[in-house]
Amino acid sequence: MKLLIGLSLLLNNILSDLELKELRMKYQYIQMKNEELKQNEPTNQQGQYQIDQVEQEKNDLQAEIIRKEVRIKELNSSLIERKKELSQLKAKLSHNHKVSDLKIADSNLKITELENEIARLKQKILEEEQAKMKLYQKVNELKQKLANHDYDRIKKLTDERKELVNKLICEENAKKILNQANKLLKTKNIVLKLQGEAIDALQDCLENSTNNQNENFLRNFFENMPGIKNNEFAEKFQNISEEYKNGLLLLENDYKSLSNIVKDEKDLKVSLIIENIFNLNSFNPDKYKIFQSDTNMKVEDINLLKKNLGDMKSELKQEEKELKNLED
Ligand SMILES: *[C@@H]1O[C@H](CO)[C@@H](O)[C@H](O)[C@H]1NC(C)=O
Ligand SMILES: *[C@@H]1O[C@H](CO)[C@@H](O)[C@H](O)[C@H]1NC(C)=O
Ligand SMILES: *[C@@H]1O[C@H](CO)[C@@H](O)[C@H](O)[C@H]1NC(C)=O
């Protein structure tokens, strides 16, 4: 039981049909978008080159903005200093009434100079601020350009598509393996049922013939039964044997197919599990033969055949149970 729970946990990559359908639709959508974008886009390399250029331009502009901010700060410091000088000079003039006319004229000249300087600094700061705003705008435009660039979108979509394709392939293959495993179990079920019928028919042959007939029957059977048709039991056995032989061929074929798929997909977790459930490495068709050797069949041998059949039926039940656990 513990083992089975472990197996189910291992098989977490199996999707439901609905999920698989959604995955396929998403894939188709991405595929379509991808093609659409590619048609409006130069080659990837050219696209990347353009992007790099825009990126470089944006970085240069951002550095320029920082330089402007430093410059504005410097201008502002000068402005503050000049303003301070001016107000100190004006205060000195208004408090001191005994200054000479010459000094007053000199101070007035100085005040005019400071006022001009202040106006010039204010104008300069305004210009720098405006230039800075223009740079900001330009940077935003470039950012938008980068965000919209088809190259990036194509790359993202392509990666997403690749991932989806891988996932889809894994899912499809896991489903293929499980389908084949179920097919094998169905065939095995039919084959074992036929074997049961064949054993019963053989038992009838052995029990309802005289010893002499019995020997003849088996010899004839192996020599392709020319004279067997007048024996009802033998004919029935022959008919069932024919069916059984065909069933056995189908079963061998199913084992081979399952082994091949599992080998091809050995990276999938489900492959390893299926290989273990079905003992794919040690499949032996001889196990299914009713006649192991020759004509020395005795009634007692029937019991051995029945026991062998019982063992194989238990094995089948176990395999069915484990596969069902895997799929739930
Ligand atoms: C100049 O500096 C003063 C004081 O630090 C500040 O309040 C003002 O915003 C600054 N002006 C500019 C244009 O940076
Ligand atoms: C074969 O013979 C046994 C008795 O020996 C009998 O019970 C059985 O029904 C016979 N089988 C058939 C198919 O007639
Ligand atoms: C065996 O098969 C043949 C051909 O299908 C059929 O005619 C015959 O009745 C069958 N015999 C028995 C005993 O089932």
From TrEMBL:
**What superkingdom heads the lineage?**
Eukaryota
| Range of residues in the leader sequence | 1-16
- List keywords of the entry alphabetically: Coiled coil, Signal
- Give the residues annotated as coiled coil: 20-174
**Can you say what this protein is called?**
Uncharacterized protein
